[in-house]
Amino acid sequence: MRLVIAEDSTLLREGLIRLLAEEGHEVVAAVGDGAALLEETAKHRPDLVLTDVRMPPTHTDEGLRAALEIRRRWPETGVLVLSQYVEKRYATELISTEGGRVGYLLKDRVMEVGEFLDALERVAAGGEAFDPDVVRALIARSAHADPLALLTPRERDVLEKMAQGHSNPGIGQALSISRSAVEKHINAIFDKLDLTDSAAYSRRVLAIVRYLQG
């Protein structure tokens, strides 16, 4: 695939370039700030953008804002965000966008090369990839205020795998349950969250967003 990388750490940026090149991917541009990310994305129209959240000049949300702009202007381009920490608001914004092709990983996940490359390919192919630690942080709520309290432990497990972007067969394999069992749990989740068939937009995503906005 063709990628644009935005990362202000020269060491990490060069490491990513080398890793991706060794895997047969083409890094068409590598930059260190959000404005340059937008410029290079407009120029190259890559298959996927890999970006940090915090970059110059303010080191707050430049990368995230650029990522969301890319989602609006070029929805066919996948966006995978890397962050040092779980930025709940930023991750919520990404999950809330339509159309798939989005992911959010903690930078430590890059060290697990197989999982990192799998996430890249999943997002580029139109899916989603959210770090398990990010998902756990996003859906953590106290029992008295958390709609998750309505779910059984197994339904919670299924919801976590859904949020990571796994397909139904993938969830079944990860949890060692049948595909029909997965479908049963997912339907129960939708019912408990009052997500009816009329919700045309991905109920898998809405099942997470409902908690974040509650």
UniProtKB/TrEMBL annotation:
The keyword DNA-binding applies. Residues 2-122 form the Response regulatory domain. The modification 4-aspartylphosphate is found at D52. Keywords: DNA-binding, Phosphoprotein, Transcription, Transcription regulation. Pfam families: GerE, Response_reg. Residues 144-209 form the HTH luxR-type domain. InterPro entries: CheY-like_superfamily, NreC/VraR/RcsB-like_REC, Sig_transdc_resp-reg_C-effctor, Sig_transdc_resp-reg_receiver, Tscrpt_reg_LuxR_C, WalR-like. This is LuxR family two component transcriptional regulator. It comes from Lentzea atacamensis.
